[in-house]
Amino acid sequence: MPSRRRFLTGAAAAPVALAAVTACEDGDAAQPARHTVEPAVAAPAARTPSNRLNFVVVLADDLGYGELGSYGQQLMHTPRLDTLAAEGLRFTQAYAAAPVCAPSRCSLLTGLHSGHATVRTNPWGPGGQGALTDRDFTFAEALGALGYRTGLIGKWGFGPNAPDQPSHPNSRGFEEFYGYLTHHHAHDYFPEYLWHNGTREEIPANKGGAQQVYAPDLISERALGFLHTHRDEPFLLYLAPTVPHAPSKDPHLGEYADRPWTGPNRRHAAQVTTLDTLVGDITDKLTALGLADRTVVLVTSDNGPHEEAGTDPELFDGNGPLRGFKRNLYEGGIRVPLIAWSPRHVPTGTTDRPTPLTDLLPTLADLAGAPAPTDVDGLSIAPLLRGSAHPARHDSLYFYRNHAGVTARQNTVDHGRGDRVAEALRRGDLKAIRFAPGQSRRAPDDQWDVELYDLARDPGEEHDLAAARPAQADALVKLMRESWAPVYPRKPFGVTLEVTGGGAEFTVTATLANGSARPWNAARLTLDVPSGWVVHARDAATTARLDAGEHLTAHWQLTRPQVSTVTTLTCRGTAHHADDEVTYTATATLG
Question: In the predicted model, is pLDDT for residue 234 greater than 80?
Answer without folding.
Answer: yes
